[in-house]
Specification:
single chain, 325 residues, 46% strand, 4-stranded mixed sheet, 21% helix
């Protein structure tokens, strides 16, 4: 249906000129004025509210490193007139500023309960009553010693998923961090560790953020590292490996049939092109001839690297012939 703009304008003018429209407008004006007066009266009443007061430190020298955990905010309950709470607590985003030069001395920053109450009074106004604090004082240990650079060790229990393998050690970035503290503490620290990581059923290379284990009397910067665990898919591979006879007496030789046997195993996909033959050792024992009634010798896998998984022999025994030299 087409709408005629002229008809709309005409209807709007007729509506504004009606007595009913004026009555509605007048009613809404009274409601707005009443709400305003109610708000003013309510704000003049005493009220209580909770605030998260941000804590900041000023005039901290570049040579200073805090050993203690620095509080980011203090939870404060304040009672005052509603107008004051609105003005000082909500509109201004209250913050507590602590001057290091005034409260820091000889490795310790002391901000007492009296200091806290006095500072909060200046934030919320002299008429405000501080009824509760999450922290009524701040006591921080700091040092001016240079940081000691130490390596990060990954503490982890890693379990690849079926068909996958951990290809290489878990690594972290950064691999070195700085540890701050008194010299007698630093002299006992040679590395730091990540928090224990329990990583199960990993089927692909995984990255995870990890906090570093805290050390009493020291601060570690950064306190978090990114740990990478290299995981690859396993692929099947086969090689023909020569068998080595052992314990063969002098004057004799041991001929094996066959002298090489196929070996099957699984490797990480990135190692599919590696030459694994020299790292696999098979042997038969001459001394077992007297115990063998089948005319065959058992082939034993003596050595192979851990990166080869589920290694097996297609033939676990071979025929032999003794040759006199």
């Amino acid at each position: 249906m087409d709408i005629n703009p002229e008809n709309v304008k005409t209807r709007w003018k007729n509506l504004k000129a009606s007595s009913g429209f004026h009555n509605v407008v007048l009613f809404l004006e009274f409601v707005a004025v009443s709400a305003l007066f109610w708000m003013i009266l309510a704000l003049n009443d005493s009220a209580q509210n909770n605030f998260n007061v941000k804590v900041t430190f000023t005039n901290v020298p570049d040579t200073v490193t805090f050993i203690s955990d620095i509080p980011e905010k203090v939870h404060v309950s304040v009672r005052d007139k509603g107008t004051n709470l609105w003005r000082n607590g909500i509109l201004r985003h209250p913050a507590l500023s602590i001057n290091f030069k005034e409260y820091g001395d000889n490795g310790v920053l002391r901000f007492t309960k009296n200091d806290m109450m006095s500072s909060l009074k200046s934030v919320f106004g002299s008429s405000a009553q501080i009824t509760a604090l999450s922290t009524d004082s701040i006591h921080l240990i700091y040092t001016t010693n240079k940081g000691k650079r130490v390596p990060v060790l990954v503490d982890a229990k890693i379990m690849p998923a079926s068909g996958s393998i951990q290809e290489g050690d878990a690594k972290c970035v950064p691999s070195y961090v700085l540890v701050y503290g008194e010299q007698d503490v630093l002299d006992t620290i040679y590395n730091v560790e990540t928090e224990m990581l329990d990583l199960q059923d990993l089927s692909e290379t995984t990255q995870i953020e990890s906090n570093l284990k805290k050390i009493k009397g020291a601060r570690i910067l950064p306190s978090q590292v990114k740990v990478t665990v290299p995981i690859e898919t396993l692929v099947k591979k086969e090689a023909l490996i020569t068998i080595t006879p052992t314990n063969v007496p002098k004057g004799e030789s041991l001929l094996l049939f066959p002298s090489k046997v196929p070996v099957q195993y699984y490797v990480a996909m990135s190692r599919l092109g590696d030459d694994d033959d020299p790292s696999i050792e098979l042997q038969v024992d001459y001394d077992q001839i007297s115990k063998s009634a089948s005319g065959r010798l058992h082939v034993e896998v003596v050595r192979y690297p851990d990166r080869l998984q589920n290694l097996s022999l297609k033939n676990d025994s071979v025929e032999y012939t003794i040759v006199k030299n």
